[in-house]
Amino acid sequence: MECNEKVTYRKPMRLRILPVLSVCIFLGVWQICVGPADSNDWRVPSTLLSSPYDILSLMFDKLTNPAPDGAVLMEHAWTSMQEAFLGYVLALIVGLPLGLAMGWFTTVRGLVRPIFEIIRPIPPVAWIPLTIFWFGIGLPGKVFIIWLSGIVPCVINTYTGVRMTNPVHIQMARTYGASDWQIFTSICVPSALPMVFGALQIALAYCWVTLVAAELLAADKGLGYLITIGRMLGRTDLVMVGMVSVGIAGAIIGFIIDKIESRLLAGIRR
Fold first, then answer.
1. Contact 268, 193 (CB under 8 A)
2. What's the predicted TM-score (pTM) here?
């Protein structure tokens, strides 16, 4: 008799409360440790570190107030997410097929790998001066920098996933008369999927970090630009609003990627 009932696991209440409790304790200690700008006691002056209350107040104010950087918070966030998304998607479109091809086809590996190994060690930020010459400080330039940072983990992880395919499975398929293309599509690609999903997460982190670095150096809008304006004005609250916004936006994107990955893996297991 088959049992089709879905078994669900619920975390104990203690494990669900602990993360919330740790965040509350962290924010409480942070708030206590920050004093006024002219503080002479053990507390940190607000000119060096803003309190969570000040950061939250400024975040709500920046939702409608464009001063002092010329744009509201959502404009900066949308600009950064748009740039990150375009660069990330282009990195996946180019990097994943290239990694699969390099892992299986010796001709592609021989042609592409030497060039890739030369470009790979160059930090994406090092390309910023040339990118400004080529594209300026607008959207195309930052998308290009983000694409460079994201394509490296896509190629490496996907290539490694194909090369880690069990040779026994490949030999068995050859024994039954499967062609190289059939082996590649039916055995190597599915075998590489765990590494591909890892590439999605790593590339996302690389793209997001590189985006902020690019906006810190050359931008006229975005969360990195907001941080730069805060630094120039000597306002730690504005700097930390940008930092917190970067963290929140990155967490949201990562959560979406996790959900997509879970659904795809569930479909594959079925």
1. yes
2. 0.78
pLDDT digits (tens, 9 = 90+) for 15-30: 778 888 888 999 899 9
Superfamily per CATH, domain 73-269:
MetI-like (1.10.3720.10)
Summarize pLDDT for 45-57 with one digit per residue, the tens: 888 888 899 999 9
What's the pLDDT at 2? 47
CA quadruple 261, 263, 266, 270: dihedral sign: negative
Pairing of strands 44-45, 34-35: parallel
Q: For 190-213, what is each residue's pLDDT tens digit?
A: 888 888 888 888 888 888 888 887
